[in-house]
Amino acid sequence: MSVRRSTLILAWTLLLPAVLYVTVIVAYPLVDTFILSFTDASLKKTTNWVGAGNYEKIFNGTFAEVIIRTFVWTAFSVAIKMIIGTFGAAMLNAAVPGRALFRVLTMPPWIVPMAIGIFMWGWMYNGQFGMISGLLQNWGLIDGPVAFLAHGSTAFWATIVTDVWIGVPMVTLYMLASMQAVPQDLYEAAWTDGAGRFYRFRRITLPLLVPAMITMSMLSLIATFNSFDIIWILTQGGPNGDTTTMIIDTYRTAIGSKKYGEGAARAVLICIFLSIFCIAYFRVTHRLASEEHR
Amino acid sequence: MSQPTMIHRYRWYELVGIYAGILLFLTFILAPFVEGFLVSLKPLALLFSSPYRFWPENGSLAAYRTMWVSVPGFARYIFNSFFISTIITVAVLLLVVPSAYAFARFKFRGSSALLAAFLAVNMFSGAVLLIPLFRLMRSFGVLNTYFAMIVPGVAFLIPSAIWLLRTYMMRIPRELDEAAFVDGASHVYTLRRVILPIAMPGIAVVAITTFIGSYAQQFIFALTFNSKTEYMPLPIGLYAYFGRQEVVWNELMAASFVGIAPAVIVIFFLQRYLVSGLTAGAVKQ
Amino acid sequence: ADQEIAWIYCGDKIDPIHEKYIKEWEGRNPGWKVLPEVVGWAQCQDKATTLAAAGTPVAMAYVGSRTLKEFAENDLIVPVPMTEVEKKSYYPNIVDTVTFGGTQWGVPIAFSTKALYWNKDLFKQAGLDPETPPKTWAEEVAFAKQIKEKTGVAGYGLPAKTFDNTMHQFMHWVYTNNGKVIDGDKIVMDSPEVLAALQAYKDIVPYSVEGATAYEQNEIRAIFLDGKAGMIQSGSGAAALLKDTKIDWGIAPLPLGPSAKGEGTLLITDSLAIFKDTGVEEKAIEFAKFITSPGPQGEYELQGGAGLTPLRPSPKVDEFVKADPAWKPLIDGIGYGGPEPLFTDYKGFQNAMIEMVQSVVTGKAEPADALKKAAGELEQYK
Amino acid sequence: MGQLNLDGVRKFYGTYEVLKSIQLEVKNGEFVVFVGPSGCGKSTLLRMIAGLDETTAGDILIDGKRVNDLPPVKRGIAMVFQSYALYPHMTVFENIAFPLRVEKMPEDKLKAKVEHAARILHLEQRLEQKPGMLSGGQRQRVAIGRAIVREPKIFLFDEPLSNLDAALRADMRIELAKLHRQLKATMIYVTHDQVEAMTMADRIVVLNAGRIAQTGAPLELYHKPANMFVAGFIGHPRMNFLPVTCKGVSDAGVEVDYRGERATIPVEPRDGIVGGTLTLGVRPEHIHTVPGDLTLTITPSVIERLGAHTVAYASLGGEGENYCAMLPGTVSLRTDEQVRTGIKAADCHLFDENGIAFERRVEMTDIDAALFNPAAA
Amino acid sequence: MGQLNLDGVRKFYGTYEVLKSIQLEVKNGEFVVFVGPSGCGKSTLLRMIAGLDETTAGDILIDGKRVNDLPPVKRGIAMVFQSYALYPHMTVFENIAFPLRVEKMPEDKLKAKVEHAARILHLEQRLEQKPGMLSGGQRQRVAIGRAIVREPKIFLFDEPLSNLDAALRADMRIELAKLHRQLKATMIYVTHDQVEAMTMADRIVVLNAGRIAQTGAPLELYHKPANMFVAGFIGHPRMNFLPVTCKGVSDAGVEVDYRGERATIPVEPRDGIVGGTLTLGVRPEHIHTVPGDLTLTITPSVIERLGAHTVAYASLGGEGENYCAMLPGTVSLRTDEQVRTGIKAADCHLFDENGIAFERRVEMTDIDAALFNPAAA
Ligand SMILES: Nc1ncnc2c1ncn2[C@@H]1O[C@H](COP(=O)(O)OP(=O)(O)OP(=O)(O)O)[C@@H](O)[C@H]1O
Ligand SMILES: Nc1ncnc2c1ncn2[C@@H]1O[C@H](COP(=O)(O)OP(=O)(O)OP(=O)(O)O)[C@@H](O)[C@H]1O
Ligand SMILES: [Mg+2]
Ligand SMILES: [Mg+2]
Prior knowledge:
The complex is a heteropentamer, with 1 copy of chain A, 1 copy of chain B, 1 copy of chain C and 2 copies of chain D. Chain A is mostly helical. Helices cover 75% and strands 0% of the residues of chain A.
């Protein structure tokens, strides 16, 4: 047995448990979903093959609008997460007293059960009793109560803000870790050359964080694209469907209206979109890796 | 770094700027918790009253007492969450450590595709796969047991754990494996005696993130695959504060704070580990 | 071993009265056990459906009566025919909420109707007679306007969140204007009666609580309880809660629309549905009828505060109303009430209605257009 | 035991041929050093001998047995890595004991062996420490200790000293040489530092771009390099190369001309070289400030005073050819001031246009008789 | 411009005193090298001069102005880091241009400057590449380029060559020396490699455990080390130290006895040393295989043949004292065979029991008159 053969066998032996596990628990239901997407499965006991019918239906409906909204929603959410997360990481990276405590304080949104965090935001957005509307009124910035979840545009942004809030701790932590991996002597060299703190951040830290940012954006994009609980609990996709994203639509179709076939087709579409992102991601990182040395 | 070097000397306005930035950032992060905490202090009758007052008048910690009474099983829910998360964490580690090692050490045809496939698991929120998963759980006969929550929980936490640990292990010099190999150690022996102890910080990070992930976020599986109240985890337990007509908001918030306290304590003591473990993992990719 | 009847029970814990009667029933039926599974309100119905869809239905579940048609059409539940005596025992129209295709598909267990509540203090401040509630929509809108303009406080609380209750609330307006959504198998929604209701919505929005689309009924009720809305339409629960406030309030039948032929309200019931293929259907029906029989049900629904309206007339109820006249408008409306429309895809129906209401409330569409569009969509859900 | 044969060993990475048919025999107990510039394939060859990398073609034989398909432990080799590859979480004792633990040696025997190794390497005081607390040289010894306890037939070292500073490197070199005499095991040692090669090897194998450029005892390579590559690679500062014209051959050797200066170099002549261009090689240490058979006037541009020596760098002519002379430390010399230097013809090397050396007429036994029987050195 | 004064500079890390009152003056245009063993505080001192680390006590003056509290850029210094600290995401051009971008220099002027620096450093062809694609030596030059464009008064180098291999290191050494002559700027250079120190410095500052052990021109340190530390640190292989007894003093010097062998060492005598124990220092390169003023018979245990030289190591007596001799490459020598070696008294160093050297009577101007005026070298 050659060295190569034996390591191959070993590699697969090590991988097998996890691969098997995930295959059974995830891949199998996934295939099930894929097959389902070509049927008219519903609460009915019988299901019929409908070919691409479900997909046709999707594109004949208002789904195009939903897709565009999903992309816009996701793009804003990911971008803001990255900006705030990087900003937070930069602040927490500063060598000031108390930063260990501050770091711990960034993590609660990640630890708290998501639904609870969303409820708290729901309270904040409440026009009559909530903190935001309340404080703004107290400070005289707005006249009467404003219900942030009532209006299409504010609800759209409110759900984004909440999604950002839930995603920021992970981004911050990851960006903080990446910042600490930047060699100290680069900063010292730049400082010696007269570069100020902000200049160093802009010309050294930020460019060196690009690979980490791409990775994090990708992971966060997947999570955001699938972000369900936030919109569902805050607005259920309303008002007027102004916060209905693909995953909300999918859930409403599959679980709400029990049109499992049509829901599955939507789920498959989501997977296709995400796969495209993933492939793009691997392309980009590959290029980056080969561009930098080695 | 026992002493700040000159480059970390801040002028007063820089300090003000940094603290202002931190304040701004933490305000965003913590505002909902402040709101939640204020809610937990207010008597239910006073919750819905305007105009808005930041400081609760006649606020009290009563909710933190009554929450145990109105949902008697709450301690059990916390225990369940702990128990389920612990099992999930152990199971994830058992599955992930060998695979992360394999991904970090062996390049073979299809290895990166397989890795991408693992990442892809993250793309499917459990909600979409709920019904097929339910059938699967039923055919395993694990419905209405702790396993109903553990089995799918593990599957959806594996991918990111592999991803994290692989990057960490890639930083362990390959020579260590080779040296052990030359000395006749089998791969399993090497993994156990050499790689595992060295990868401990990385494993700790994975353990923490997995634990938190399963502690706080396992909701939909618990809801659908388990009907036994005595097995319910924290997030479901919190829903017990939703009455028929009324949500007992103050108790719900109080219970949330009590419920996440164990996890916060864990994080508090391990935060240094968390950042440094991630640092090591973050360097490449 | 014992045979089990699994019951998905919505709420946070089992009502002690139900607990008591479960014990009693088990005592009378040796070898049988009732296993209630308590599931939060937000998820209990979906859970029952998911279990049925996955092929492992529970014996019995607490569901909104509007879902019965869907379950029945999909062959998931068994009919629960009522005897004439049983039917008679209920208030009029109630049995209709569970009737479809000539038979009954569930046993009503909870029931709610709505009435108009008004804030006498605000009426006074606005220069209105605090003892005269609006009788018509026109008055309602006018009063709301006057309150808003005189006091700065919203005159009315309109719930229009993306929530089932938004559809219910609108149906009240439809039924107080002699409107109909579906007649047999025909969508008849695009009618002047329904259009008038939608137009009334549009008219009252400017004087309602800011951001109607952010609130459902309980949230609106909380605002009313806080004295920040002149009027709301709500169920019995509000009365119980109002007693704990300093507000001087009144309760009256729902105001009527221009085409009204008399009082009206939407009859919303929740039922116990008996799922098929569990092997214990017979016994489950028996239990369902037992637990909703006049004795246990009467005790259950009159606890107050739960927001329920009694299902059956009884001397006890009369006593109750005498003791607390606030119940009168809630019970009186039943006679003119209409059931929730039954659709095969009730979620589809519900979403279409919500969309219609919201588009009018937010000013995105004109009532006539919104109505036409929604009526068209409804075709596919019947 | 401990004898190694490489028979036509080749290695491809993809289509890139890293090693091109290596033929080599290592005797039992011999200390062989592989040297060569970075990337020439030294590590690859060593790793193939160890069994860490696969052999694309050819045979590797240890004590006459083909081992191509055996795992490292079955080959009877031990390897010391450039990075030492110490296990950071284990004590020095456990690091050294690792191979014995793998083979499940009884505790008492194991202890005795580890302590014996520690004694040899002066690590007795360090056994309970972790590698992180040791200095570079100590770490290096631990790595060797781990190799010793296995009592391998062949030791393999991959640049074991390259992470150490100069002084430590010198010390460790001597210790390794002593160890070799003590253990009498075969050792194969990879380095790109030619001082290490010269001082430790019984025999040096010079690799260049995947081929063996020359094999021989250190002084053989120094005095009789087979080609310009080896001549330039061995010796520091490196040999000066001057383009010369061949003016004639005689029994005394080859007469060459460099800018009018003529000298007869005592090498074995060949046919058909008269009138052609050859390369004359002169080591910096063979350049003196007294006239010689060949005398050149140079203007040093850089002078390095090392105390014991003074090294002068000058440029000859416009082609940027660098000329380097290593003179005694006491010589009086200034930059940009001309100085006359002389070279003895007997010290010179001569190469043809392909870079192949003409055989020098130098009697190596004058220097050390043992040189032609390196194993006995 | 470019003149540096350190006045009683001290540095504490917590309670640990890393630098103990350093007093030093560096003249404009001088090339000063700090050497010393690892951990002696070289980098710390350099970083304090740069302004990267805080000065605990004492004053740092540049051109007479106290700069303790100024940030690096205001001190007029430029620093080349050991790791080069090149920005991996910028091209070579941008790396070199960085300091100019910071000071917002107009594009055309900036371009001219960068290209000028690139020409000096032979980097014209590399300007568009990223550092990851460069070799070690090229990276090193980029780092220097970044320092050059700022036209600083003082250049600071922290072991800039330690990451390079031996051959490259030798080349870069020469290039740096040329650069110094070209720019005529003050340069302060940290290394622990004494070859670098000897070859490049106008003046060497030897640091030992936070103190200056000696300051002087390279050959001054080599020929007249002030103490045993410097004597042992400068010169390779290191000086041999022999314990001797003082038998008497005279005008000719100090008479010492080593195992019966007597010699008079030509150093300035001191009072009260007769009968005491002194240390005799002999450099390996001053040991010959002909009898001298002092003759020792040794048995080499290790012989390193480097071609040009042969280095023999022997142990004198049982105390494990190592004795090292650097002999010509052609010497005939075998391990474990006795050989007689001789030392000239004039080559010897003598130290008292505190390790302080006796002033040698050696005329350094014999070697190079420039030595006592290093800046002119
Ligand atoms: N895994 C690999 N895949 C492809 N090429 C490789 C691989 N490993 C080594 N090489 C190539 O093989 C050649 C020889 O590498 P090797 O490591 O043996 O060099 P070396 O002589 O040890 O150099 P150094 O002195 O720098 O360690 C190099 O050109 C290298 O790029
Ligand atoms: N930040 C610090 N905190 C505490 N001690 C330090 C710190 N930096 C350096 N030291 C200590 O100060 C001493 C001098 O360190 P320094 O880096 O100056 O040595 P060096 O001479 O440059 O050594 P090397 O040649 O290894 O680079 C060392 O003993 C080191 O342990
Ligand atoms: Mg190598
Ligand atoms: Mg240093």
